[in-house]
Amino acid sequence: MKKKSMLDLHRVSAEEFKAVEKIPVAVVLDDVRSEMNVGSVFRTADAFVIEHIALCGITGKPPSHEIHKTALGAEDSVSWSYHASALAAVQQLRQEGYTICSIEQVHGSVSLEQFTIEPGKKYALVFGNEVKGVSQAVVDSSDCCIEIPQHGTKHSLNIACSAAIVMWHFFSAITK
User: What is the pLDDT along the chain (176 residues), one digit of tens a residue?
Assistant: First the structure.
């Protein structure tokens, strides 16, 4: 097997990407400390044609050298906005018709593989701080909480890994 070249991949430009139809999913980053994690989320959001990223609280925002190191330009293709708090962002998204889904380990959460993604529905996926997770106020304001099943010794995944798993799950369900 031969690796594909950039020409073989038929990638669109950042400008062309803006016109591509997106899946009805927004991502909310609630006080994510690491700009490298933020950049990874941008890059994954680009790969899975996510509508928008809401950067909240202490979450870094472009332009940033650290974000660019992992986003590799996806910060220029994916739509984003800044909000002083994740709670304000989810309240705005709810008004816009999004179902708010915090990705968090809580009593009563739904396991990712058991979560039913409804056609035509808009979803906002909230990912939290590397240490504290999604804030309790945002969890309380969520329509549901989704948990990624894990069976190892650690109790959580890196936020960039969690975001990639969940975005891919939504992308694959919506585009099939």
Answer: 999 988 898 888 889 998 999 999 999 999 999 999 999 999 999 999 999 999 999 999 999 999 999 999 999 999 999 999 999 999 999 999 999 999 999 999 999 999 999 999 999 999 999 999 999 999 999 999 999 999 999 989 999 999 999 999 999 999 98
Q: Are 36 and 69 in contact (CB under 8 A)?
A: yes
In a domain, 136, yes or no: yes
Tell me the whole-structure pTM to 2 decimals: 0.96
Q: How many domains does the chain have?
A: 1
- Order of strands across the sheet that contains 110-111: 80-83, 50-56, 23-30, 122-128, 98-103, 144-147, 110-111
Is 1 among the domain residues?
A: no
Domain residues for 161? 21-148+155-175
Q: Alpha-carbon distance 11 to 79, whole Å?
A: 18
Q: What is the CATH number of the domain that holds 66?
A: 3.40.1280.10
Residue 6: inside a domain, yes or no? no
